[in-house]
Design brief:
By secondary structure, this protein is an alpha+beta fold. The chain has twelve helices and 13 strands. It has a six-stranded mixed β-barrel with strand order 3-4-10-7-9-8. Strands 2-12-1-13 form a four-stranded antiparallel sheet. A two-stranded parallel ribbon has the order 6-11. Helix 2 packs antiparallel against helix 8 and helix 10 packs antiparallel against helix 11. The protein starts with a helix and ends with a helix.
């Protein structure tokens, strides 16, 4: 089939063709970025925190007694919590994945660095964290008993002995020492007042709490052997006992200190669901927008094709009388739509890239992978072919005699 007659036919309806091309282009640009954002949010929701999500419960407390010995209370609390039936491990923690507390610090490899090598999340281990969170040391060792420091004996803003050893997540170890083993390396954390700390072990990736943009990589985490006494505790149990253990833990904490407030009590699974609530809302919103755009585009193609079939009834009848088959008529309308869809898709891909650059600048969205462009192009082309199929079949079914009398 010759393409030139199709171009000649389209030039007679410049305005309608231009509007359809723009509609397809806008749909392509928006849907391409929407699908990318959806896939990114789904990936974030499915990302593993590095801890045993379905076995952990979390409590955040605060005491009403200003002069209470926090270190002694922490030891009593941990001992009481670990003794509860169904508790595999318990410990005091400063933060937890999906939690509201976010501890972080710059990390330098040299004391005189003006710009940090990384910005990492800081976890405090009281001696029970690895077992409680279900973390595994994949290289090196865990902390030795004499390496732990009491919370009251450490002040990062004052010159002191510092923290002798740290554990790094796999992601942070690779960022700081690419292609090398991090074991035995020294890192500077907390500023110039503190001496360097030696990396003694590497654990599997551990997710940082807070929003994804807080740290360069959400798995950049470092663990300090500091027994923090801030009233927050994590308990590991079995999934079916979480609620019962949570209630028993609250009672045990009140028994240790009746003058305390339970500020938060949750399973980590519920905290994860709450943390990703906005992600799920965005996914459903973008899905609704994408489906609506596809529907509007499909109806626009069908409407314009139906209008052209009515206008060209006599022309179709003449072509049928001259020997054109139904297949020829069907192919004509499909090829005509392919030309319009192709023009709209090409323009839409350029708009998709421009829209992605705008989102990168204002919303810190990653660069749109090139693989999304051909997928969006194929989707819009197939949508156009499917939408025009009905009007094209009606046009192909017009009998030559009826079309001639309609003149």
């Amino acid at each position: 089939m010759h393409i030139l007659p199709i171009f000649n036919q389209l030039t007679r309806h410049k305005t309608a063709c231009l509007l359809l091309v723009l509609e397809i282009a806008l749909s392509c640009a928006i849907i391409c970025n929407a699908v990318f954002i959806i896939s990114k949010r789904v990936s974030d929701i499915r990302a593993h925190s590095g801890v045993v999500d379905d076995e952990l419960v979390y409590l955040a407390t605060s005491s009403l007694l200003p002069d209470i010995n926090q270190d002694a209370l922490r030891r009593q609390d941990v001992q009481a919590l670990a003794a509860l039936p169904g508790v595999k491990a318990a410990g005091s923690v400063n933060q937890i994945p999906y939690g509201g507390n976010v501890w972080g610090s710059d990390i330098r490899l040299q004391a005189d660095q003006t710009r940090p090598t990384a910005h990492a999340s800081i976890y405090m281990d009281d001696g029970n964290m690895l077992q409680t969170y279900g973390l595994q040391v994949v290289e090196g060792r865990s902390f030795l008993p004499d390496e732990y420091i009491e919370n009251s004996a450490f002040d990062p803003n004052k010159i002191g002995p510092g923290v002798p050893s740290v554990l790094l997540s796999s992601a942070l170890a690779q960022r700081l020492f690419p292609g090398e083993s991090a074991i035995g390396k020294r890192v500077y954390i907390w500023g110039e007042e503190q001496p360097p700390s030696t990396v003694v072990g590497v654990i599997k990736n551990l997710m940082a709490p807070g929003d994804r943009g807080t740290f360069g990589n959400q798995y950049d985490s470092v663990i300090f052997p500091i027994r923090v006494s801030n009233g927050a505790y994590a308990l590991r149990t079995t999934p079916e006992q979480r609620q019962r253990v949570l209630e028993a833990a609250i009672a045990a904490l009140h028994k240790q200190d009746p003058n305390r407030i339970i500020e938060q009590q949750d399973t980590l699974e519920q905290m994860r669901n709450d943390f990703h609530r906005r992600d799920r809302s965005v996914i459903w919103l973008l899905l609704a927008v994408s489906v609506a755009l596809l529907a509007v585009t499909a109806f626009g193609i069908m409407g314009l094709a139906s209008f052209w079939v009515q206008q060209r009834t006599r022309q179709i009848g003449i072509r049928r009388a001259l020997g054109a088959t139904r297949r020829h008529i069907l192919r004509h309308f499909q090829l005509e739509n392919l030309v319009l869809s192709g023009a709209g898709v090409v323009l839409g891909l350029l708009l998709a890239y421009a829209l992605n650059m705008l989102l990168m600048r204002h919303y810190e969205l990653p660069r749109l992978p090139l693989g999304y462009l051909p997928i969006a192009a194929l989707l819009l082309v197939l949508l156009g072919q499917f939408a025009v199929l009905g009007p094209a079949r009606r046009a192909a079914a017009v009998p030559p005699a009826v079309a001639t009398r309609a003149a």
